[in-house]
Here is the input.
Amino acid sequence: MEYKRELLQSRIAEIKDPIQKRLLQDVLIDVFSELLDYSEQCFLDLEHKIDQEYCDPDSHYYLYTGICKKDGIDSASRSLFEVPMQKERDEMEKGYLGTMFLACDYPSVLQCMSKAYPVHVQTDKGEYETTAALFYCKGYLKTFRRLYEQFGANQRQWHTIHCPYLYKFLDIVDQEGKVPYDAVIQKVSIELGEFSGFVMDDMVLVWNVSEIVCKPKVDVAAAGIASYYIHQIPLDDLDAGYLAAPEGEEQFSVVFSDSKRQLLVRTEKEAHPELKLLKIEPICLEKDHTALLYPLQSNQRILRHADRQALKQPRFLWTKGEVVRMLSSYEVFRDFELLDIRPDMQGNRAIDMNPFIHVHSFLKQKRKIALILHAKDATDIFRYEKMFFLLAELQLCTQEYEWTGILQ
Here is the structure.
């Protein structure tokens, strides 16, 4: 502000006539100073936008997850799609009866999973009385595992998917084997006692991932004594993230060419006339009418200047300030307050948010670090899953420690 004041004073001092000087004072102060403020703000906004887009290489690969009724999905949605549930035939043979959503907190879900319950099943072959147990939904877990494998195959950085709804979807499994595996199940009635009021049927997960099939242009290239196929796929949406998923190819490489707006997929086995892509859509809630029961959750983070500098430096010490800096880049951390960090302290049982990541460490016994967190909303049924998501992101940053969490 000081340089603006000096500039205005220098212009006014050149005018000798008092009337003209007064008019010029009004014009410069009321108009010119406003233009300077507006110009400064525009430059700041542009700098902030460039900083956000340029410095975060994963900006197009963050995932949003939500939950709604099956009939609540917007068929014309451009952002949110139903998460496919991968099932295998042997699951039906092992007594799979259906999937339900349990809208209660994580300790209550664990309590329900530790017991067996009487179940009445109606099928096309008759009605059956049996005993069933509850397990995490295998179909959804396999879908997320498959997505992780595709991130790795495309050489993209994996971040834990923030999906607090995932571990409240429970499979109902017949423990006595009374229901024939080839029977068409029409209705399942299960009595959970005090938790019966939390059961929700016909619920599905949604996320901002869609599948598209394209017809690439294929060229053959040589590498030594071998040859491989290069698939050129034009991209029409540079605001989205793409993952190639060629069928039957275990080893392939992907190059994203920003200048040519295309994706290059190199395969070794065969040329694919059609190639499947996973497209991570940008979120536009104004154009989406999916009837979500809870707000969307995301693993998106905001990389600030200190965060970008920290990514270039090795971490030798874990301090409270360092942990706060890392966690505060995630929006979900706004629901918590970090009270303390305590080494060698046992915490609550945690959900393995990345059960498909296998880490081989030379350290046989890892030192535990417990985060003491305060949930600002004690009635939030997703507070434990949100905490476990933050712990999983910390765990991906280090192998020498085991992170646990305690809510107070």
Summary: The radius of gyration is 28 Å. The mean pLDDT is 84.
